[in-house]
Amino acid sequence: MDKLKLVLDWFPNTNHTGYLLAQKRGWFQEANLDVEIFGEVHGEMELHGGDFVCGPEIAMLECRERGINLTGIAVMTQKCDSGIVSLKEAGITRPRELEGKRLTHWTPAWFHAAIRRVVEADGGDYDKINLVNLDVGDIVATLGDVADATWVYENWENQVLLEAGKEINYFNLGDVDPIFDFCAPAMAASEEVLRDRPDAVSRFLKVVDRAYREVAAHPEETVMEVRDMLPADATESLLIRSQKHLAPILLDKEGRWGRIDAQRWNRMADFLVECGVISGRTEREFTNEYFEA
After folding, report:
1. How many whole angstroms separate alpha carbon 115 and alpha carbon 138?
2. Cβ pair 27, 211 in contact under 8 A
3. How far apart are CA 247 and CA 212, in angstroms?
4. Using CA atoms, how far apart are residues 110 and 113, in angstroms rounded to an integer?
């Protein structure tokens, strides 16, 4: 049996239901795979000794720039489900209104390049934003206290805020600029596992593809099936609403999960070269070759 380790980009949530469902139903074992799923809150992509790691395309390319040999092998949603959330009272309805407000940020340079672009494209001044270096774990405790706005995945933090009775404003970054409909959340593989165990990678993706198709077809039933693998403090209504939000964007037009669209990838990669986050494009940044034809 092939042992594989998957490192999540955050604690397990509804973005990860397909992986959890495959584990719960024993589908990995049926494919002769022993899969460990490891999740924690961390703002920078790290393999933690894993074979696969989840995260945004931007972080994958930044890792490659630093000499970490990762290749994108799957995208978890067919639309980038991320943007800026704030409490309604903060009055932030568009990027330029971040001026004078407190925005949480991560350390990597790509964060600033990305948000600077959307703010300046909207006529704002990025340098007038008050930046708060924080990897947000509790969005309810953060907004209105230590910060006014945060870059989030809509499927989770927005739902947590709504569940807590908060009135929010939100704008999807991809709706502001198509460059930001990039591959996120996504999954990369180490060069070693792709080189040494390609058959195991293909079997892994086949199982996960199957699982996410099931999640897309039955969001409420599947998220409840993996309820015990998700945060204990998340209510059933939050989980169901979140999974139903994700269901329409999990699969491509052919009803398949995970295939990376070259246009989505290349727009962002070219932008990162343009703004100096990475020095240039490289071969094999991503591939769909481990999926069945």
Report:
1. 21
2. yes
3. 9
4. 5
Distance in angstroms (rounded) separating the CA atoms of residues 151 and 157: 10
**Pair of tokens at residue 83:** 């943007």
Share of the chain above pLDDT 90, in %: 89
Q: How many CB atoms lie within 10 A of CB 127?
A: 10
Tokens in use for 33? 């795979």
The 3-state DSSP class for residue 76 equals: coil
Between strands 2-7 and 130-133, the pairing is unpaired
Cβ proximity of 34 and 197 under 8 Å: no
Whole-number pLDDT of residue 110: 84
Looking at residue 95, the DSSP 8-state letter turns out to be: G
- Residue-level pLDDT at 158: 97
Contact (Cβ atoms closer than 8 angstroms) between residue 147 and residue 103 = yes
Low-confidence ranges of the chain (pLDDT < 50): none
